Amino acid sequence: MELIFRAYDIRGIYNKDISPETMYKIGLAVGNFTQFNLKGQNVAVGSDIRMTSEVMRTSAISGIIAAGLHVTDLGTAPFGEVLFGGWQLGVDVTAFITASHLPPDWSGLKLYLGEGEGFPEEYLLDLKKRVMTDSFERAGWDDLKPLKTETFNSRYIEFMTKKFKLEKPVSAVLDCGNGSACLTAPMIFKNLGIETKELYCDVEPHFPNRASEPTPESLKDLSELVVSSGSGFGIGFDGDGDRGVIVDDKGRVLTADIVGMIIGQNMLKSKKGVILANVESSMGVEKVLSPLGGDVRRIRVGHTFLTLEAKRQKAMLGIERSGHMVLPKYFLFDDAMLIPLKIAEILSQTDQTLSELVDAIPMYPKRTINFHCEDEHKFSVIKTFQEQFTKTYENVNTLDGVRVDMADGWILMRVSNTEPTIRLTVEASTEEALEKLAEKFQTILKEEIDKYT
Q1: What CATH number has the domain bearing residue 330?
Q2: Structural domain span for residue 62
Q3: Residue of 53, 100, 171, 180 marked catalytic
Q4: Rounded CA separation 426/330 (Å)
């Protein structure tokens, strides 16, 4: 059971790793943590569209109520609507039952503080300890609070529609992947006036048409329809709606770095500010946005750190290589719905196509190489290189693994949080420079790992 507690959330296969009984205990732990650690009394709970989510939401709510807290049930909704509801209610914690982009037999839980900052790892470790040791305090019958039920669907759709304005018509293909985004995205696009072609926009909890993870492979139908229909762009959402992948008018699946730079360029026209990018993101973020007045700052990998650091550093934009993005101008949490709406707004303000905007962005060759390294050794390996590289190189970042920036590129060595793996990521100005950096650093990394075998 302890393996369901990850660095950023809680998740596992239903009735194998995580069950309704387990979720009840997690609810108790969330309730106690909110009471005693956060000094709070109010929790909002919602869930995605999976077959298991209704029963798991009920179990979590039962546990939180049993701890003596006030709970508002936000029902079945996409990620953004649930976090919006918690934010509007001013609760202490918002809990979202979901397994995000994972297959349909998975379930889990994401937890956020009042404004939408993700639970940091130490909070999740506290919950893990309570659950694993059955350390709970339950309220007496006369201290239990009645369950409230509320929906924010219409208010969320209205909020999103009012925040964006199209100066001329824009067309798009909307691929909800049969996931939670089906419940809001089509109406938001319609209300905003986007000429929309829909793809897989009916809720199907088994994700029959494509994987809930939006990848270049799973978004093949989206790419083809964007091109064949002559649409301005496409968007493919993941299962719960906290990530969305943009496809340009040529059918190219864009990385989060590229999309972030296009959005950053637009935002920096009117206001300078802090831009966050994790240590895995492209060096193009600095090269494109710094000259425009963007104060680019590197942060740790993980959407939790994205939301926490965006609040702490008062950032105007945060880019996570995995696809999460924050635009605190609207709200703090990483709702993927903001991204296509912002792209539509940008396209309505220019005569350029999205592909033309993309082609103006410098792109650099990049490669990630995985090395097997046992869990008991992988952190020691990274520590060795942190100490060694700090002495040898001028520009070294040890915030998350060890990243070395050089004249012709950069390398990052970082451990996986979920498997016995060290990842070497290399990006360079040319293919030739990439090959040299990759060859050099994979050799020394392999030699160090071999010392432990």
Answers
A1: 3.40.120.10
A2: 2-151
A3: 100
A4: 34
